[in-house]
Design brief:
Blueprint (H helix, E strand, L loop, with lengths): L15 E6 L6 H13 L24 E5 L6 E5 L7 H14 L1 E2 L11 H13 L7 E2 L3 E7 H9 L3 H14 L12 E5 L6 H15 L7 E3 L6 H20 L8 H32 L1
Parallel strand pairs: 1-3, 1-6, 6-7, 7-8
Antiparallel strand pairs: 2-3, 4-5
Length: 288
């Protein structure tokens, strides 16, 4: 919020919520752990988010998970989500729910394409799991997470399945539900430590071109490294997200009392104008 703006006119959340979305294997859970280690200033802390490794297609994160950053604080939270579907319509349905109705820690995420057996196993897990907080939070900004290796393969490979990765990113990224006015999501690029510096630059430029965002200021290269450069990149990305969330705060809707007062004022103004008109008409008749 800029200086001189009345905060009472806006819905200021107690906790700013950032939604992490991305394809399978993009590193959303790993990114949660890395951000948590940096902001908690403890590189040896246990990982908070369960990281999936070499799992079947239907496994992975299947519930929304809220992570307060730093721990036990209420400043802002990261929401880890289920990986994107290959079906664009299924992703649209989820985006519509999350961006219009909000997100809740522990919420089960299912799709129409899920097998009957998989849905049954998820429902069993859902009954056993109890969230510590059922508070529904509005999504204040979006972080789109992608795998640098998969992006590079989609650039160089002749395999149509691998080339599809960039197309999947672009199609979902450009969903208007994920943007706030003219502010599009930020992109976090993971697993860049596996690539050369030149290839990492190519990945960022490619993402900037297909997504229509500046690669130097809105695409953040966050490799699996515990060095100062990575920590600074994380800080820059979070600053960008929180600044955009701040500038796009929703305005408060007028209360019933405000509406009544406003209606009364309008009625008084119109009454005064009509009486003045009638008085002037009488005076003009009297003078004539």
């Amino acid at each position: 919020i800029e200086d001189g703006v009345d905060l009472s006119e806006y819905k200021v959340p107690k906790t700013t919520s950032l939604l992490l979305i991305g394809p399978k294997g993009s590193g959303k859970s790993s990114l949660v752990n890395k951000i948590s280690r940096v902001l908690d200033k403890d590189l040896f802390t246990l990982e908070r988010a369960q990281v999936t490794y070499n799992s079947p297609t239907e496994d992975g994160t299947c519930f929304l998970h809220e992570y307060m950053i730093p721990r036990k604080s209420g400043s802002f939270s990261l929401y880890d989500t289920r990986s994107l579907s290959d079906d664009l319509s299924e992703n649209r349905e989820l985006f519509n729910v999350w961006m219009t109705m909000g997100v809740c820690d522990g919420e089960l995420v299912t799709r129409n394409s899920d097998s009957t057996d998989f849905k049954a196993r998820l429902k069993c897990k859902s009954r056993r799991r109890r969230s510590t907080s059922y508070k529904v939070r509005a999504v204040d900004f979006v972080v789109f997470v992608v795998n640098a290796v998969s992006v590079l393969e989609s650039i160089d490979s002749l395999d149509e399945n691998k080339k599809r990765y960039s197309q999947l990113i672009a199609e979902n990224f450009k969903n208007p539900l994920l943007s706030y006015k003219d502010d599009k999501p930020v992109v976090a690029v993971t697993h860049g430590d596996i690539l050369s510096v030149s290839d990492r630059v190519r990945v960022r430029i490619h993402l900037g071109e297909i997504l229509g965002i500046p690669p130097t200021t809105q695409v953040f290269d966050i490799p699996e490294c515990d060095d100062l450069a990575t920590e600074l990149t994380i800080a820059e990305m979070l600053t960008f997200c929180l600044d955009r969330a701040d500038r796009n705060l929703p305005t408060k809707e007028p209360s019933e009392w405000d509406v009544r007062i406003g209606g009364l004022i309008v009625w008084i103004v119109w009454t005064v104008l009509i009486m003045a008109f009638l008085l002037l008409k009488k005076l003009s008749g009297f003078l004539s």
